């Protein structure tokens, strides 16, 4: 079974998926007139409260929850893994994937907001499943092919949430704690269940409130640790940047052959990790974007696209420069990798880099990893529960949340790599219907973006507003 799942995972996340996601990023960048140039405006909108608009949470609350689910262990360990496998050049291609991914993040959020609906409690529901169900209706009926795509997205997203958001994050949290503190895994598992359950069972407003407070603190704390390391490695910063650029465009080995090299390898691992770290195209973040208080889809879509900027363009790039400069500053790390090329992991590289900060280095990494993992558990719980609502109705939310929280205990005590593979496959399969519907509606997105963003009508109400009715 494990071998079969590994083969499926390798296939679905192979060159075809990377080409689909990265190609969509580039296409939407041009189709939307390089929406990335509106980042300064989007960042300002992140702090704006549109109290007169419909929605459940603030712009910043929606962004914080999305970032909570996005900035996880992949932003630290994932970058290190990409460097070991693909060389320093992978950092450059990860950054490029993040820049182009901003356009896709905008487009998929716009679509989600355009076709959002209200549930029985007047709370907002959105995501690719509702876009599929509502965008292609004829005579009040959804075509069977659109309904199938909607169900497939929701089903795979619900599965991926349990794995990626619950089990895998609990496992990562337990691993980093037990490696530094002598405490049984089952004790940590119980603590995770209690802490996550107390927030998740409180609903979207409770989740967003916690994320609003947690995300800025954990991001600033981690960034501060990175800046300290960069100051310690000051003389190696320019050589590190040169090494990243050189390895991105040449086939020369890096660090004496200690890590992967070659343009193709660097591009493959850099793009793959970049696409995975910012989740642009997966369709997860638009689910929470639909809950935001906004007058029109463009406002919150602009806010949502800053998530790809912060997670990949800033955090992942910062991590990459820290790791490459540390490897240059301490040649013994290269020797360790050469001595154990198949055993040395991204987690080890990250731990070594932060351990160079006297006294507080390791605690910063441990606390950062724990905070990132915990926030990811919270964010993905909302995604999964909204998909459960679409599939089975609002009565399915509480049972799904209970299962989600209990699975985190299994992740903490160790459920093997099978859960990770299943959730990874689920991520790929949820991305396909999401990308298709986003591309299919890209003309509408481009047309309304011109009105709202480029013609300066961001305070207008939604064009051609579609009645928000609960369909379950």
Task: Walk me through the structure.
72% of the residues lie in helices and 1% in strands. The protein is mainly α. Strands 1-2 form a two-stranded antiparallel sheet. A hairpin with a 5-residue loop joins β1 and β2. α2 crosses α12, α4 runs parallel beside α14 and α5 packs across α16. The protein starts with a helix and ends in an 18-residue tail after the last helix.
Structure summary:
The chain has 472 residues and is mainly α. The chain has helices at residues 2-12, 15-31, 39-45, 59-70, 77-86, 89-114, 128-135, 144-178, 185-200, 204-232, 237-249, 263-278, 285-289, 297-329, 331-339, 346-355, 361-392, 397-413, 418-440, 442-454; strands at residues 117-118, 124-125. 72% of the residues lie in helices and 1% in strands.
* Mean pLDDT over the residues: 83
**How many distinct beta strands?**
2
Overall spatial form: globular
Give helix % range: over 70%
Query: How does the helix and strand content classify structurally?
Result: mainly alpha
Low-confidence stretches: 467-472
Largest sheet data? 2 strands, antiparallel
Biggest β-sheet: strands ordered side by side in the sheet: 1-2
Individual helix count: 20
Strand content: under 5%
Cα gyration radius (Å): 21 Å
Distance between the termini: 36 Å
Helix-strand sequence: HHHHHHEEHHHHHHHHHHHHHH
């Amino acid at each position: 079974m494990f071998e079969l799942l590994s083969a499926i995972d390798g296939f679905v996340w192979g060159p075809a998926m990377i080409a689909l996601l990265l190609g969509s990023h580039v296409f939407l960048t041009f189709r939307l007139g390089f929406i990335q140039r509106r980042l300064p405006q989007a960042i300002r909108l992140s702090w704006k409260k549109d109290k007169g608009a419909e929605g459940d949470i603030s712009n910043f609350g929606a962004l914080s929850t999305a970032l909570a689910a996005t900035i996880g262990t992949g932003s630290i360990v994932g970058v290190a893994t990409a460097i070991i496998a693909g060389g320093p050049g992978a950092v450059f291609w990860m950054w490029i994937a993040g820049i182009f991914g901003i356009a896709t993040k905008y487009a998929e959020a716009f679509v989600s907001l355009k076709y959002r609906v209200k549930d029985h409690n007047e709370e907002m529901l959105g995501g690719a499943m509702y876009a599929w169900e509502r965008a292609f209706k004829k005579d009040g009926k959804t075509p069977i092919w659109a309904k199938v795509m909607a169900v497939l997205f929701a089903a795979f997203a619900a599965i991926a949430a349990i794995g990626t958001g619950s089990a895998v994050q609990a496992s990562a949290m337990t691993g980093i704690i037990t490696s530094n503190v002598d405490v049984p895994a089952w004790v940590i598992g119980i603590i995770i269940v209690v802490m996550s359950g107390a927030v998740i069972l409180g609903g979207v407003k409770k989740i967003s409130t916690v994320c609003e407070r947690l995300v800025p603190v954990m991001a600033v704390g981690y960034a501060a640790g990175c800046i300290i390391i960069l100051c310690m490695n000051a003389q190696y910063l320019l050589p590190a940047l040169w090494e990243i650029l050189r390895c991105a465009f040449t086939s020369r080995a890096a660090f004496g052959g200690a890590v992967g090299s070659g343009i193709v390898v660097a591009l493959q691992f850099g793009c793959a990790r970049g696409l995975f770290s910012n989740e642009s195209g997966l369709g997860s973040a638009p689910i929470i974007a639909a809950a935001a208080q906004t007058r029109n889809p463009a406002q919150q879509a602009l806010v949502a696209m800053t998530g790809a900027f912060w997670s990949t363009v800033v955090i992942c790039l910062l991590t990459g420069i820290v790791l490459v400069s540390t490897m240059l500053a301490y040649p013994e790390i290269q020797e360790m990798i050469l001595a154990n090329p198949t055993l040395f992991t991204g987690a080890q590289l990250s731990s070594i880099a932060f351990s160079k900060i006297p006294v507080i280095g390791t605690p910063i990494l441990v606390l950062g990893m724990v905070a990132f993992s915990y926030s990811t558990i919270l964010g993905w719980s909302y995604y999964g529960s909204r998909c459960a609502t679409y599939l089975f109705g609002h009565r399915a939310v509480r049972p799904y949340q209970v299962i989600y929280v209990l699975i985190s205990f299994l992740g903490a005590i160790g459920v093997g790599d099978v859960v990770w593979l299943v959730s990874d496959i689920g991520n790929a399969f949820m991305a396909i219907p999401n990308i298709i519907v986003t591309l299919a509606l890209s003309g509408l997105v481009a047309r309304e973006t011109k009105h709202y963003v480029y013609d300066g009508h961001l305070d207008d109400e939604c064009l051609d507003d579609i009645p928000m009715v609960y369909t379950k």
